[in-house]
């Protein structure tokens, strides 16, 4: 084996340790014993000629080189998984086109897109997969989804071809009893300086959270309840109000950047099903969502 040859097994082992930052938990996650996992990581470091992990009595931490390998290994493993998924599905001519989107996002646009697709007799059935914030990119890269509805500039669009569908403003979602909820409009300065209602924090792609006083959230349902309880607020595209609770009020944020909903798919990946969905998307492109009402 050449020095620059890496096995997918080695990458999976390293990613597990790098994400858990604990050899015991990583071994349990992988379903193997800890000693062979430790040996495999040491062997990988020797072959690459770099230290990937700092180990001491306090635990495990990534080195700079380890951080690079973690990013690259995730991409490589996603590409291998995508190749396997797409190869298996290539023989199934009746399989649905898998479209992934954030739960509650672009709801009206999605309804129109599905209706337009269903009206085209040459279009494959569309299976909709609803996910949490930031998960579309991973599902596309791993081959578990064929196409996604994503949002510029907030989503990770690296490595994807895209087509703009519509652009809209944003609203602040607030607990109905808060004083800001009575305003006709707000600014980013207004919502960014509310001591009793800090903005919620979503995880970054690496799983870490930005600094700030707001609560850490993982799911839309967590967020919805925290807003209703008066613990947080958030700024979202106006059409994402599809999941708004009666305890919420949406107020336009006049200087928030516009959000563009895009159709995204892996660069260079083409199929008759994707082409048919593109025809359906042409019928809904540039049609703005319905104006939000208080």
TrEMBL record:
<dbReference type="InterPro" id="IPR000847">
    <property type="entry name" value="LysR_HTH_N"/>
</dbReference>
<dbReference type="InterPro" id="IPR036390">
    <property type="entry name" value="WH_DNA-bd_sf"/>
</dbReference>
<dbReference type="GO" id="GO:0003677">
    <property type="term" value="F:DNA binding"/>
</dbReference>
<keyword id="KW-0238">DNA-binding</keyword>
<protein>
    <submittedName>
        <fullName>Transcriptional regulator, LysR family</fullName>
    </submittedName>
</protein>
<comment type="similarity">
    <text>Belongs to the LysR transcriptional regulatory family.</text>
</comment>
<keyword id="KW-0804">Transcription</keyword>
<feature type="domain" description="HTH lysR-type">
    <location>
        <begin position="6"/>
        <end position="63"/>
    </location>
</feature>
<dbReference type="Pfam" id="PF00126">
    <property type="entry name" value="HTH_1"/>
</dbReference>
<dbReference type="InterPro" id="IPR005119">
    <property type="entry name" value="LysR_subst-bd"/>
</dbReference>
<keyword id="KW-0805">Transcription regulation</keyword>
<dbReference type="Pfam" id="PF03466">
    <property type="entry name" value="LysR_substrate"/>
</dbReference>
<dbReference type="GO" id="GO:0003700">
    <property type="term" value="F:DNA-binding transcription factor activity"/>
</dbReference>
<dbReference type="InterPro" id="IPR036388">
    <property type="entry name" value="WH-like_DNA-bd_sf"/>
</dbReference>
<dbReference type="GO" id="GO:0032993">
    <property type="term" value="C:protein-DNA complex"/>
</dbReference>
């Amino acid at each position: 084996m050449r020095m620059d040859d890496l096995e997918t097994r080695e990458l999976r082992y390293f990613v597990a340790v790098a994400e858990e930052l604990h050899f015991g938990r990583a071994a349990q996650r992988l379903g193997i014993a800890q000693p062979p996992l430790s040996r495999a990581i040491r062997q990988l470091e020797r072959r690459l000629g770099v230290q990937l992990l700092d180990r001491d009595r306090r635990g495990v931490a990534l080195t700079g080189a380890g951080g690079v390998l973690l990013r690259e290994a995730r991409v490589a493993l996603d590409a291998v998984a995508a190749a396997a998924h797409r190869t298996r599905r290539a023989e199934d001519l009746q399989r649905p086109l898998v479209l992934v989107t954030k739960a509650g996002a672009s709801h009206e646009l999605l309804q129109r897109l599905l209706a337009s697709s269903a009206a085209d007799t040459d279009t494959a059935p569309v299976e909709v997969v609803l996910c949490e914030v930031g998960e579309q990119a991973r599902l596309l890269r791993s081959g578990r989804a064929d196409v996604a509805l994503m949002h510029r500039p907030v989503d990770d669009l690296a490595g994807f071809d895209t087509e703009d569908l519509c652009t809209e403003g944003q609203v602040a979602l607030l607990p109905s009893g808060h004083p800001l909820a009575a305003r006709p409009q707000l600014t980013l300065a207004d919502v960014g300086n509310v001591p009793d209602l800090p903005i919620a924090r979503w995880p970054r792609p690496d799983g870490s959270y930005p600094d700030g006083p707001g609560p850490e959230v993982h799911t839309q349902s967590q967020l919805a309840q925290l807003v209703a309880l008066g613990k947080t607020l958030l700024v979202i595209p106006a059409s994402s109000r599809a999941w708004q609770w009666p305890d919420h009020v949406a107020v336009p944020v006049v200087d928030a950047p516009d959000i563009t909903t895009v159709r995204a798919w892996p660069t260079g990946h083409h199929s008759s099903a994707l082409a048919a969905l593109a025809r359906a998307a042409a019928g809904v492109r540039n049609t703005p969502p319905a104006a939000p009402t208080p």
